[in-house]
């Protein structure tokens, strides 16, 4: 009964915390709510008229939704780059940032699931994925593996921080014997969610653009660059607008992770380009369409030729320690690297896989306003959830929210 009483008190205190704040905080939450309402309106149109209101067709059946899903899986997996040093290697420099990273993973995973629901057309078809009721097709289908690993990773990233915060809310010290095994498991699970997603694409034999042995490792490299880059930007905002102070050395250490991952990602990109263009075959047409266009079709050229220079520029600047240790330069590099990988891992990966079609037909894809509205709404949902989680966690971590003080 006492735990139930504490839990009820935690919920009430969390609601009080998240509904109170500065003027800037309320403007931020109101803005996110407004964007979510726009997303809901666009989604209601999609529910009424179906996926015909999107830019997707039977030729290009994955678009903006799956592009964002693929990218956000990497953002969620990036939390492991803070979990492992903190809980496994006992590096105290990461301790302040780890709960923020796990909160970001929870928000990213919820956005992943929301994008999957949006891409399926609506929530009414989700029953097909329920074991015993629908056709789950486990273990033959890679999609069912993806469902399992995503939901399992979401459970780990909710339960571990909740236990730690619940104990600290009571003024008690969390027991490492309880949360460390889960943290170690989450390290392997984070790798699994990204590899399984990569295998989902690699297993489609009719899409030669994805039949690449480097796809899985490159997924991980890009994830461990973009994810921690976003974490650095979030920590910068938290340092500016809250009393939760993150030390410079913590941000610089995460910056080193971003640098190494970005360098590996760039090396793999060069390797893929060599494979596609040094001795091209008819299977290289998708890559040619992406980078140079085919038969006058050039919809993706502005995207990819924005992403590549940004990727190269960020990696070069981060490579020099003097520049990387300048926080303003680090924030700039993290921002452009995040944008570059979002483009490259989204439009640059998903759409070209469908072009040209099996019979050589080129049907280009451009997202509609409805798709963009739903996408922005889901991103706003993720930011809204993360803000609530971070605000409550920071209050508990700083000792301003405790059960024993009531």
Architecture overview:
- The protein is globular and about 70 Å long.
- 69% of the residues lie in helices and 0% in strands.
- The protein is built from 14 helices and no strands.
- The chain is mainly alpha-helical and 406 residues long.
- The longest helix is centred in the middle third of the chain and has 30 residues, at 248-277.
- It has a single domain (33-397), classed as Formate dehydrogenase/DMSO reductase fold (Up-down Bundle).
- The chain crosses the membrane at residues 27-46, 66-85, 97-118, 147-166, 178-201, 221-242, 254-274, 300-320, 329-352, 372-394.
What's the gist of this structure?
Belongs to the NrfD family. 69% of the residues lie in helices and 0% in strands.
């Amino acid at each position: 009964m006492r735990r139930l009483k504490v839990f009820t008190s935690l919920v009430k205190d969390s609601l009080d915390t998240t509904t109170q704040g500065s003027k800037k905080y309320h403007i931020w939450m109101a803005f996110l709510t407004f964007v979510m309402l726009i997303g809901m309106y666009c989604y209601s149109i999609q529910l009424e008229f179906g996926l015909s209101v999107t830019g997707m067709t039977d030729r290009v059946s994955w678009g903006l939704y799956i592009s964002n899903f693929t990218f956000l899986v990497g953002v969620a997996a990036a939390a492991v780059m803070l979990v492992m040093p903190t809980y496994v290697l006992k590096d105290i420099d990461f301790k302040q940032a780890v709960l923020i990273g796990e909160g970001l993973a929870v928000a990213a995973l919820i956005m992943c699931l929301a994008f999957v629901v949006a891409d399926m057309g609506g929530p009414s078809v989700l029953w097909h994925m329920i074991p015993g009721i629908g056709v789950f097709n486990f273990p033959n289908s890679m999609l069912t593996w993806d469902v399992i690993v995503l939901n399992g990773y979401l459970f780990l990233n909710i339960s571990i921080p909740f236990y730690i915060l619940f104990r600290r809310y009571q003024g008690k010290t969390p027991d490492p014997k309880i949360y460390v095994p889960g943290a170690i498991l989450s390290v392997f699970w984070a790798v699994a969610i990204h590899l399984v997603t990569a295998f989902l694409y690699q297993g489609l034999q009719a899409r030669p653009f994805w039949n690449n042995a480097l796809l899985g490792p490159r997924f991980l490299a890009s994830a461990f660059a973009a994810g921690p880059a976003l974490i650095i930007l979030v920590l910068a905002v938290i340092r500016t607008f809250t009393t939760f102070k993150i030390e410079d050395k913590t941000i610089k250490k995460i910056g080193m992770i971003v640098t190494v991952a970005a360098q590996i990602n760039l090396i793999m990109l060069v390797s893929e380009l060599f494979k596609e263009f040094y001795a091209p075959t008819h299977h290289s047409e998708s890559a040619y369409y992406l980078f140079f266009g085919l038969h006058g079709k050039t919809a993706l050229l502005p995207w990819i030729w924005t992403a590549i220079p940004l990727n190269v520029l960020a990696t070069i600047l981060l490579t020099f320690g003097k520049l990387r240790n300048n926080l303003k330069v680090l924030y700039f590099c993290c921002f452009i690297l995040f944008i570059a990988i979002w483009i490259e891992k989204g439009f640059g990966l998903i759409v070209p896989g469908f072009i040209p079609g099996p019979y050589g037909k080129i049907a280009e894809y451009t997202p509609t306003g409805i798709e963009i509205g739903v996408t922005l709404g889901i991103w706003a949902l993720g930011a809204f959830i993360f803000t609530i989680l971070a605000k409550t966690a920071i209050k508990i971590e700083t000792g301003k929210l405790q059960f024993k003080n009531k």
